[in-house]
Design brief:
By secondary structure, the chain is of the alpha+beta class. The protein contains 4 helices and 4 strands; from the N terminus they run αββααββα. It starts with a helix and ends in a 16-residue tail after the last helix.
Length: 173
């Protein structure tokens, strides 16, 4: 499918947008719904900062940085769309959709709607949203693609240049 990475970005953005609107309209701020006991709870929360609540009240800074990041991702996708791996392009699409989802919240409301809360024993993981999930999964895919590329390159330098990464058979003398 042509331009699938932009379709992925649009999907992440749309599902993030819809879920945030549901949370905004159906739950009061700080209201909780237990989904899996105390382990997974939907919690209506607003974040005026970045990941883990850092840099609170820095909306203008985040809008500028996110604008640059989105522009950079689009440029990088365009640069790599012909020869980039699918793993890389899917990862970039996920990051793009997530970044734009949180960007829109910050630009319109000055804060991001978060609602996914997980508790591991006594540790409560910081509340996040689906845009954040797209970003994290996308970055993991980009890093995995980079590691695989390094492995392929080092394999090629060692004479392992066939498709399954094994040493090519040498003729018997």
């Amino acid at each position: 499918m042509r331009f699938y990475y932009y379709w992925i970005a649009l999907f992440v953005f749309a599902i993030d947008f819809v879920t945030k609107k549901i949370i905004e309209t159906q739950l009061e701020l700080n209201e909780q719904i237990e989904v899996l006991g105390g382990f997974f709870v939907i919690t209506s929360h607003r974040n005026k900062g970045a990941a883990f609540g850092i840099l609170q009240e820095q909306t203008t800074f985040f809008i500028i940085v996110t604008s640059l990041v989105v522009a950079g991702i689009i440029w990088y996708i365009q640069k790599n769309r012909q020869h980039g791996s699918k793993l890389l392009l899917i990862g970039l699409g996920l990051v793009l959709g997530g970044a734009f989802g949180n960007f829109l919240d910050r630009a319109l409301y000055g804060e991001v709607v978060d609602f996914l809360q997980f508790t591991f024993g006594t540790y409560v993981y910081p509340i996040f949203n689906l845009a954040d999930s797209g970003i994290v999964i996308g970055v993991a895919m980009i890093l995995l693609d980079s590691l695989l590329a390094i492995r392929r390159e080092s394999g090629d330098k060692n004479g392992k240049n066939n498709e399954n990464g094994q040493q090519p058979e040498q003729p018997v003398q």
